[in-house]
Amino acid sequence: MTADGTRSLRVNGDQVEVDLGGATPLAEVLRDALGLRATKLACRRGECGACTVLVGERPVMSCVTPVALVDQPVTTLEGLAEEIADVRAEFADRGAFQCGFCTPGQLVHIAALLSRSSETLSDEDLAESIRAQLSGNICRCTGYQAITAAVCAVVWRREADEMESR
Amino acid sequence: MTWIGERVRPIDWEARTAGGVQYTADLDLPGTLIGKILRSPHPYAEIIDLDVSAAERLPGVRAVITMADFEPGARYIHRGHPLSDRPPLADGVVRHVGQEVAAVAADSAAIAAAAINAIRVRYRVRRAPLTPGDSLRARARRLHERTSGEPNVSVLSAIDWGDVEAGRRAGVVSVHGRYVYPSVSHACMETNTTLASWNAERGCVELWTSTQAPWFIAKEVSHLLGIAHEQVICREVAVGGGFGSKSKASEHEVLAAALSRKAGRPVLVELTRDEEFGANKPRHRFETTLTTSADRDGIIRLFEADLLVDNGSYNHMGSSVMRVGLITLGSMYRPDGVSLTSRLVDTATQPGGQFRGYGTPQVSLAVESQVDELAERLGVDPLDLRLRNTGPEFAPTLCGYEVTTSRLGDCLESVRMELRWDERKAERIPDRGVGVAAGMHGSGAFAYEQANRSDAAIDVFSDGRVRVRHGSADAGTGQNTILAQVAASELGIAVSDVDVVSMDSERTPFELGAWSSRGTHMTGSSVGKAAREMADMLRAVAAQKLGTDAVELRDGRAVSENDAVDLGDLVELSDDAVDGCLSHETSYLLEGTEMITPGKDRFNLSPSYAFAAHGAVVDVDRRTGKVSVIDYVAAHDVGTAINPTATEGQIVGGAVMGLGAALGEELIREGGRIVNTSYLHYAMPRSADLPSVRPVIVNGSDPAGPYGAKSVGEMSIIPPGAAIANAVYDAVGVRITDLPITPDKILTALAQQEGRRRRHRLWRRPSRWWVSGIRALYPLGLHTILHRYGTKLGRGVGHRGSTPAEEPRIIRARTDDELTSQLGRDARPVGGMTDALVARRSEARPAPVLISTIGIPARRVITVDERGALRIGAAVTLAELADHLRDRLPFVSEAIDSIASPQIRNTATVGGNLAQEKRCWFFRNGFACYKRNGATSPCYAVEGDHRFQHAVIDGHRCQAVTPSDLGTVLASVDAEVVVGRTGGRRTLRIGELYSGPGELSLEPGEVILEIVIGAEDLDRQGGFAKLSLYHGDFATASATITALGKEGRLRDVRIVLGAVAPTPWRARETERALEGTVVSRLRLRAELDAELDRIAHPLPRNGWKLDAVAGLAEQALEQGWPPGWRGSEDAALC
């Protein structure tokens, strides 16, 4: 049984100790205790996706995830940005962000989708499956289609690169 | 070298996509306090007593402010005297729910919340009108003393433009109607946030604030604090969306500043999402009553209009929003005359504010709907009718606009071509329709003194880099990037060599900000001018150095025929350079426009005018009322697109925001208080809700614009409302005149069109008499009595300021015994906790201990037992269960896929989902309702908006429903629930699990351990269908049908309807009737309709859900037994 008190987390590859109540949302731990402020808070109710981070491989809403229930490594945009340089460039080319406030959550979720694309995305209707998967990430600026287009482009490019490297 | 027209990446893209830019809440100033605001719970009340002493005494509280901390009579300036009417904090009276009463700054958010709770306010609550209709009644309370001559009318405009009599004579074909555009929220992703830091030495305050217009923030804050404009220093910070809401003060900035002054430390005020929806200033609701008259040739000759604009409780920009709205009638089309009356009506609700489109979308809905109505009357194609009525270029309009270029005709032709308009019109696919709407918007409005002026500065450094300085603010529009393009083009350098500094009161020159679509025109012009003048300065220096006047700036150098010199070196050579930097500041003054002046009705507000035509293709589902947009084209005349990617972004983003208002968004009020104060309950588009909007830039060049450019940001939100309404009419012949076009309106109208009516014969059902009687008493005073007096006898929830709960202790059990041995009244079971922390915020007595099942290995797995039954651990996540059942029971997986979001499904558990709280936006958003607060409190759904979320069957005192889609589908496979307690287990049928809406028939100390689906039930065939307002929303209604046996006849049929009754509801009579029959959609519908008629007891406005759920049942049947499936007899029956 885990009691409250100091707890140990692995965040972006680093082991960190935080001395916080177990009900503290993971997002607040990341932002306030660890200074990782790419993760944004926009609703604090698990409804908008701006706070999306990876726990293990899975994207979760860190604003409603109490730190007491986190038992796998946590990855935030700070830890992913280099890995998804191609997605970020595609975002820039297609206008997939405007104000940028939802962007960290979108990118973290997209990184998770791409890393398991055979399970998460359908070849048959790629755009539609991206839209369905990203419906928990609200964007008020772009109308979503540049985001969808950017992810499609990355999927296709990565597939083509893979074919070539074979 | 020009960068105009290039698809340049946003200049800060690398930082912005790495989480490397700082928004206000990301900043760190040592010693920052957290500020919170106490808000009025009443729509209208006098403040008898306001006692902050207990709050001030709390340890860790550093400042508490009330109106007494401001000058007596201090008011926001807004549109200026006599319209200035809003105090920074309540001045003896509150006029809307959410009005600021006091504010505190404390060491932590928890202390600040406790301090808010410790402030004692005694209110004398008064009745006050909450709608324009009520406000205009003779005996309504007057909210303010106004000068219009009519009570509660802040501004009255009666305008005749042109020759109204001639229009009347010529307009022989008329259409008439009333159109309502609702109040909608900007819902920016970043809530309004301000960090204020008072500097006692300098007597000034620094502000990092999420704004589109720092100048206006400084103006209002300095005025209210009684200091000079220059003593409020705004600093540059990233802004997370504005859409107009952040173009003027949002009432928290001055509170942060005043708290910081009083506390002597920095203060951060970050509005919550609840405050953002519930207290901030949304779009003004317009009721437009319009008559449009045309001659036989289809030329519009006359508009006659009567507008009611809901001002809310204070003026803000209401007068100019109304002004810009009514100008819609005198600008785009060219009738002989316009005759209108318009009233800005005070109501005791949150005031309206500035919102992208600024009055135009509201009036445009009426005009563009009526153009279609006229087209039908005249037998003319609606697109052709618009083409006949587009005005000429370079010509004046009735409202005084001097239109420059207009390519509206080309926009309309683009829609015709891109949508295959003529073919689609000819095809006539059932229930599919096409619609078009046009619009027009200025490029900046001369709305204030000096709004025709923009200053800008250019710095060139000795390393060759260039810096643009402007005082506007890029809230996501791409303004900084296009200004870099402009400067780079004029100076012959790469865009990557340009930095942009904005917003900073000390470092950037005079600029009123990014509002009224003025960003591109005004700062594009001023930065262009500054850069051109800088280029002249550099060329002059180069001419001396190179010995020739024939110098050109390109590739970062000044180039003559034979020689070249780097720009950086020119800085070193220049006598005017200081410390390696050559600076130049300039002022751009707009010519030819006129300022809005009281008493005048015609003025040329803008230097140029943008146009657009949008076309929509929709499918209307006659069974559920759902409107699906199949295709959408947005063709825009923007002059020259300086950055086409950014321009398209504005077109698509604005169109989707407009589609949100057309199809789902609306702020819903009950007793003056917003009901839907969360994204969960606000049906704005999610990614999967809309198809790609296809933007078309009808390129041109406007001589007035900088580099030929006109505006785009607001234009795109104007046409969608009417485009969709027109397409819906084309599809099913139903004209919806009040947005949003939600399924209830469609199904209600279709039932009327088809002459269908359900008869529930309540007089023959004694079991419903009691409920009927109570419901009948609600509007006769019962609601008022329970609300005003009964709620005071309750548990004391639902009032803002109720005691914040202590943080719970969270325990992860490792075994069933460890779990059950600790459960009890004070220790409740939880799963992944996706809603436990949120739900406890509004619980009267939240449990101090929460014990999670997710650490119990046995509860995390799905196994098959010796009898072949599937045993699903309660801590299995929704995502895991969906994956597991995808081949075996695909309809269960589909139901799970429709729940919330992938992130939630990754965490939320099966047990937690089944046990989640009831679905009701009154209950969930803190109303002191019957279930929340106790038996003497009202059910707010009876009188309030119950169209989507509430029961149509078996509603009792509470009208809520069980939200779990999983519960609905599991009931259709006869699942069993294993419940554990200390020393024992019991097994329930899932139908027995629920005792009421979201309420379980479990004792304290009991917990769901697993779900069991029997071996035979794993062979069930079936389908699930759900109607929701957006992708991932709870069901408005859902239906599941399953049956055993694959021999062509239905055996052991289960029909379970979700979200229509307090618990998942079995249609047992229909099940029996279908037993042993061959699959027939028509028979199902007939039996189910008959059963629903016999059993249902809907509220006044949710009877449509019966039609919807019957339609969903048909769809579920089709999904489980697709058309063409052997045994289907519909072909014969049809």
Automatic annotation (TrEMBL), chain A:
Does this UniProt record's set of keywords contain Translocase? Answer: no
Pfam families assigned to the protein according to its UniProt record, in alphabetical order: Fer2, Fer2_2
GO MF annotations for this entry?
Answer: 2 iron, 2 sulfur cluster binding; metal ion binding; oxidoreductase activity
Query: What keywords is this UniProt entry annotated with?
Result: 2Fe-2S, Iron, Iron-sulfur, Metal-binding, Oxidoreductase
2Fe-2S ferredoxin-type domain ranges (all copies):
1-80
Has keyword RNA-binding? Answer: no
Q: What is this protein called?
A: 2Fe-2S iron-sulfur cluster binding domain-containing protein
Q: Please report the organism this UniProt entry assigns to the protein.
A: Aeromicrobium piscarium
TrEMBL record, chain B:
Coiled-coil stretches: none
Pfam families recorded for this chain?
Answer: Ald_Xan_dh_C, CO_deh_flav_C, FAD_binding_5, MoCoBD_1, MoCoBD_2
Highest taxon in the source lineage: Bacteria
GO MF terms held by the record: FAD binding; iron ion binding; oxidoreductase activity
Q: Specify the FAD-binding PCMH-type domain's residue ranges.
A: 803-1018
Q: What is this protein called?
A: Molybdopterin-dependent oxidoreductase
Organism field: Aeromicrobium piscarium
Q: What is the lineage of its organism?
A: Bacteria, Bacillati, Actinomycetota, Actinomycetes, Propionibacteriales
